[in-house]
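hey so i finaly got around to running the thing on VTT domain-containing protein from Candidatus Scalindua arabica. pasting the sequence first so u can double check i didnt mess up the copy paste, my clipboard has been acting weird all day
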Amino acid sequence: MESIEKEHVTKKANHIRRLYDWTIHWAQTPHSTWALFILAFCESSFFPIPPDVLLIALAVALPSKSFRYAWICAAGSVLGGCFGYFIGYQLFEYVGSPIISFYNITDVFNAVSTQYQNNAFSAIAVAGFTPIPYKVFTIAAGVCKVNIFILILASGIGRSARFFLVAWLLYTFGPKIKVYIEKFFNLFTIVFVILLISGFVAIKYLG
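ok and heres what it spat out for the 3d tokens, dont ask me to read them lol
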């Protein structure tokens, strides 16, 4: 039984790796900009590879267009988040639930749903910046019937902050910063979120 489970995990990892390579290859094509938009759209609702990987590849190749790529990435991600919302709102049983099961993130999904009862806006905005799969939050927003305009505004803030940070780093420091972004970005986002939450708490108690 254990060997079967390991084989299943290995197959899934290999599948993800092939998708990663396939995603990166679009940077070398004439359709790279559209590919970035579509990838950002799909990742917010079901696709496993984050758009950052293609954003980084394109920004490394053309640093002067880094912020343009960030805009495209943010727009695709926010629109994709609306599609994820629709999946949760109307198609959770047939589409949303299988997506959550595929990524084995049922516990995260339940925790997110609980967060929405407290402050949906801050949960979505912070999540948009973190390494947590954003599709969990968009689908959960639909299931929990979060106001769609809250989702759009919070997604716009969180996702834009994430992608523009990547663009700014590459525009400012050039290709040499790429390895550090890929290696430490998740750690940096965690620190950022802790500081952000600390700021919210300070405002609440000092205001």
